[in-house]
């Protein structure tokens, strides 16, 4: 006779719930496997392909179907499908790798040396023979082992230098670089590939501290103007107010040089009537230059971003007073005296010629 038991009913309910969960998990696994298989088919790869083959296939298809590639096969929908498939495969492989990394490491307690009870000789156990023979044989074997280790180290160094991708790197180092999306991982792979090739070596400014952009920025200039000026300076251009400042200094210096040249042609102070007339004519001719310089100074004062950098208008009288107080150059004085001597000689010669002509006229 069957008897109803509440404990049996609870066990049946738990078993049915577990079967339902198991059925759901099986369906999810089947769907996941189908989706993953379809992703591999989209990229044209097998499920056991290497990470490098996966990356190269994605790069090739992305260049072919990217909307901005300019090729005839460009298709945004196809590119989106390829990118989704690549991200799904990368995510699945990353999760599998993380699961494997999370497993505890099992230490192998194996004997990596020959136990003493299994050795024929405790010293120089390299075979039979006298102790001296075994010692010589042991020395030769140690030397040969050292040579083999050196060669193996050199081969590993050469292989590390020729390594181009993250796939060939050590697993622990490859696991240090983890990105969220496939495109980011692709960019990271390309950066690491360039670093392994040595393309980032011997760059200008290598080993130097970065520029402190915050302290270099003028607080009285907005950020957009500062960035525009920075781009222009980096490309060899200068702001207008700096160019104006340079022109004002050069033209003012040229004006002073012209007045100094006129002053050197004159005699020492006080000036004579003729010399003063020449000096006033030189000042009159320089008024237009002073007017142009002052116009540039006004424009410069409107453009300069710093108040302390503004300039005062130049005064022709103050410049002339400063120049006239300077004694004339000795070389210029000598040149002026030579010119005056030549003029006097020419005048004397002209007077003699005039007198001889008058005398000849009277004789006739």
TrEMBL record:
Superkingdom of the source? Eukaryota
Sequence ranges assigned to domain J in this UniProt record: 38-104
What InterPro entries does this protein map onto? DnaJ_C_subfamily_28 (IPR052573), DnaJ_domain (IPR001623), DnaJ_homolog_subfam-C_membr-28 (IPR018961)
What SMART domains would the database entry show?
Answer: DnaJ
What name is this protein filed under? Answer: J domain-containing protein
From which organism does this entry originate? Cotesia typhae
